[in-house]
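Observation: inputs received (chain + pyridoxal-5'-phosphate).
Thought: call the complex predictor directly.
Action: predict_structure
Action Input:
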Amino acid sequence: MNSSEFLDEVATRLDDYVASRDRNERVNPPQSPATLRKTLDVHLPIEGHGLNPVLDDLDTYIANSVKTHRGEFMNPLWGGLSLPALAGEIIAAATNNSMYTQELSPMGTLIEHTVLRRMCEMVGFPDGFGTFTTGGSNGNMLGMLCAREHAVPASTKKGFDGTNMVVFVSAEAHYSVLMAANVIGVGHLNVVKVACDEGGRMRPDALIDEIQLVKSEGRTPFCVVATAGTTVRGAYDPIRPLSEIAHSEDIWLHVDAAWGGTCMFSNKHRSLMDGVELADSVCWDAHKMMGVALVCSAFLVKQPHLLRTLCDHTNVAHYLFHDDAENIDLGRYSLQCGRRNDALKLWLEWRSRGDAGWASMVDRYMSLADHLQALVTQHEHLEMMSERSWTNVCFRFTHPAASHELNEVNIEIRNRLIKEGVFMVSRSNIGDDVVVRCVISNEGVTESSLARFVETIVKHGSDVIQGLPSAV
Ligand SMILES: Cc1ncc(COP(=O)(O)O)c(C=O)c1O
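Observation:
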């Protein structure tokens, strides 16, 4: 088989995979991961198998993947499949330009500059810049690292004693803040979880109290991480008051907009992030609601010199970096050396849709979330478990025959969903309650798929109730 026959075969598989989003197939493989571990042959051979078996391996891989492009996939904060971004992903891999210098990625560098500057403009950082990262987790880490450099200038060079440095996050913030605290040398125990209001938003008055408490203990507050779109409830912390509090104490404000940042396209919903221009740094995942294939995420900072300082590697990399492109080479703003061109797929998708296309996508997702909320509220055996700000719809099945066993009932409903393979949604907790967390972040979702989803939950819920000892 020559290379063009091989690529034709690969293209046929791609075409078939994309077409399968409209076929009525399972979302997840029928066998459990444990069974797949026993049955799939994934060993690495001593002697290579050549090109032909690669195609068989691809078939097996596709058959045993979760079909994240199906509209019924509503499990994490992303889903669907966009063709311009897919094309960008394929061509980025084929061209394999690395993003450290413009010499080695000429058009890629131009594209990444353009996309980052546009995202900064949208946030309200007119002189800002940033870098592409592997995701919101690393974006949060970079935000906290900038905060560290701001609080302890030259800590990048001299090192740092983080044992007394404290970062504040909402009690509902993403776990990546803990990991970042570890990586930057602060430690999990120096992450203070600030109380939220009933909607899951960080309470400014509680932040003031926590900062004062930390100061009275002789510790140093250095960073507040506000979340714009929390993972479970989709809550938006009130950035404007949080920024006033943080800045009155010279504390860095980082906004984790990994999930909720895309609201900035919509005139109707942009106000969810009111005051974001007051932040010092922001991370924003294009691989979540914007539907661009993993990974694609931006870290943006108001004062780019800080990012540059903490990514400074002096002149040791003389084999890569030369003075003539000093202010253009993106390797001076990244902690990575070799780096994929993740901006290409986002740029292609953005050129294809325009700002207006993203805006109508956000508005459509929000109205689908309204629709799901209405279906839940109208049903006697379903109840919303949180107020809604974004496209996260947190609800549960409820029944008088199981009022003390609702957690077990909802866990079992989710287990049955996974076995059945028609819909995938997340099971989460709000306080002590188990909830079904459905997010609208996939262009395949429609009002009718949501109606089928609700019917499916109710059917499983009723079956579970029938099987309870108390129902016999
Ligand atoms: C609010 C929030 N921040 C950060 C992250 C981490 O993002 P990533 O998976 O891109 O690292 C997530 C992931 O779900 C998230 O929900």
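Thought: report the result.
Final Answer: Residues 398 and 404 are 10 Å apart (CA to CA). The first helix runs from residue 3 to 19.
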